[in-house]
């Protein structure tokens, strides 16, 4: 009689204890899964996957230039295109039309408003910039100290510190999401920040022949830098 009286109570107590144990175990596995998922998508891992798969790229961009006090000094937008090895093209559409083309040896800057063209050797112009591994295919670690700085604003971030002390920039930040480069920030020695945001990203598109070839208009002045 006593056993029959107390069995339901004891059974319910053990049931509650068992359920709590299962809940704790479930939470543990959820946390473990979340941690393993997060660790599989760190900034460094996303950057490696992005670069390993990269042959060509095209994306619309917005560019902002911030002064050392983080005030916006300039803003522009356009279309960015690149193809390995060593080819890229920036077509600015706003506020003024400009074009920058890297043809593998030289970088050409076309300014239609001023009717002039500037040219510089590619190796000199790109020293200490992400272009060294984006279009050149060099290992990132060859030119930069690489630091995974975690997640922020919905992106996985990587910090790059140029190894060359004479580089144009002292710090580069890359933001990744879904194994694609979404943002890029470059800080120079004076604290000025150039920020790019990419959207409508097309990975490994094809380009027509001559897309990265620059032809100077006859009437434009040429300046060698």
UniProtKB/TrEMBL annotation:
Pfam families reported for this sequence: LolA
One GO location term (cellular component): outer membrane-bounded periplasmic space
Protein's cellular compartments: Periplasm
Keywords from the UniProt entry: Chaperone, Lipoprotein, Periplasm, Protein transport, Signal, Transport
Signal sequence range: 1-40
GO biological process: lipoprotein localization to outer membrane; lipoprotein transport
Similarity comment text for this entry: Belongs to the LolA family.
Function: Participates in the translocation of lipoproteins from the inner membrane to the outer membrane. Only forms a complex with a lipoprotein if the residue after the N-terminal Cys is not an aspartate (The Asp acts as a targeting signal to indicate that the lipoprotein should stay in the inner membrane).
Subunit-level organization: Monomer.
Protein name, as recorded: Outer-membrane lipoprotein carrier protein
Originating organism: Sedimenticola thiotaurini
